[in-house]
């Protein structure tokens, strides 16, 4: 396996540049960091263009490295200075891979398909760590449909990937320019749309019946859902809170809301 020692190497420079959203879009690829996460990408069936390993990583994480190499089109050893250029963390494990971005699932086909199960709409989420955590929670709870609405952060950014622990590799993520504009078509397909808001006069999530297909909309960390999106929904829901805090952050809110929705849905399915 060839070892790259120069930080000016073209392959390394292109891989490092994938920390930028625009570079990921142009290349149709993203950079994955960490032994477990890169092995997860391989196990999930993603196409791995290049894999990079430090000498220490090849020894310490040998089973992960072997699994990654089996899927990678090309593998390279790298020096510690080169690893530092690729790393987005303070304590790098020395394992990286460049993967093709998964093909976006066809939105039109989804919009025309009869509603089934429950789903989550995330509107303009700006914090990649929050987004990753929500995706990880959604996968763990068995959420089948995830809509990313408006201009939000990239689920394949380094921080979102780490927060999601590979959830983005396996979930079908649909991108909607506008939840409000898509609402009539979603409703026609059989979805009930509920807006999550921190309003005391909204319906408590624990009081709702989730026996029918439901899309739960969660908004931006600071501003919440757009007024037009709230107005386009069939109802507003909130998390009853007894403490002094007025609201929760997006990932905490989504976790509670999703748990309640999926718990109720499972009870009705049973």
Number of domains: 2
CATH class of the largest domain equals Alpha Beta
Biggest beta sheet summary: 7 strands, parallel
Q: Percent helix among the residues? A: 40-55%
List the helices and strands and how they pair.
Layout: E1 3-4, H1 10-17, H2 21-27, E2 29-33, H3 35-43, E3 48-54, H4 55-60, H5 62-71, E4 72-78, H6 80-86, E5 95-100, H7 107-112, E6 118-123, H8 128-141, E7 145-149, H9 158-164, H10 167-170, E8 173-176, H11 179-188, E9 192-196, E10 203-204, E11 214-218, H12 227-232, E12 235-238, H13 250-269
Parallel strand pairs: 1-4, 3-4, 6-7, 6-11, 7-8, 9-11, 9-12, 10-12
Antiparallel strand pairs: 2-5, 3-5
Helix pairs in contact: 3-5, 8-9, 8-13
How would you summarize this macromolecular structure in one to three sentences?
With 270 residues, the protein is α/β, with parallel strands linked by helices. It has 13 helices and twelve strands. Helix 8 (128-141) links the parallel strand 6 and strand 7.
């Amino acid at each position: 396996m060839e070892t790259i020692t120069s930080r000016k190497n073209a392959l390394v420079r292109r891989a490092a540049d994938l920390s930028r959203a625009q570079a990921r879009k142009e290349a149709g690829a993203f950079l994955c960091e960490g032994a477990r996460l890169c092995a997860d990408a391989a196990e999930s069936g993603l196409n791995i263009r290049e894999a990079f390993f430090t000498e220490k990583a090849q020894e310490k994480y040998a089973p992960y490295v072997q699994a990654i190499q089996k899927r990678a089109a090309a593998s390279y050893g790298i020096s510690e200075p080169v690893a530092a250029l690729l790393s987005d963390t303070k304590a790098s494990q020395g394992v990286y891979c460049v993967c093709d971005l998964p093909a976006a699932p066809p939105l039109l086909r989804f919009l025309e398909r009869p509603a089934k199960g429950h789903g989550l709409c995330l509107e303009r989420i700006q914090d990649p760590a929050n987004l990753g955590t929500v995706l990880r929670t959604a996968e763990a709870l068995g959420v089948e449909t995830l809509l990313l609405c408006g201009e939000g952060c990239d689920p394949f950014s380094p921080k979102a990937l780490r927060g999601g622990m590979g959830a983005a590799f396996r979930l079908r993520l649909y991108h909607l320019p506008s939840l409000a504009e898509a609402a009539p078509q979603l409703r026609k397909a059989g979805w009930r749309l509920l807006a999550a808001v921190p309003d005391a006069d909204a319906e408590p999530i624990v009081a709702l019946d989730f026996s029918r297909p439901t899309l739960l909309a969660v908004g931006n960390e600071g501003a919440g859902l757009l007024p037009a999106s709230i107005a386009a929904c069939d109802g507003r829901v909130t998390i009853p809170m007894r403490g002094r805090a007025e609201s929760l952050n997006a990932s905490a809110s989504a976790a509670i809301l999703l748990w309640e929705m999926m718990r109720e849905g499972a009870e009705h399915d049973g």
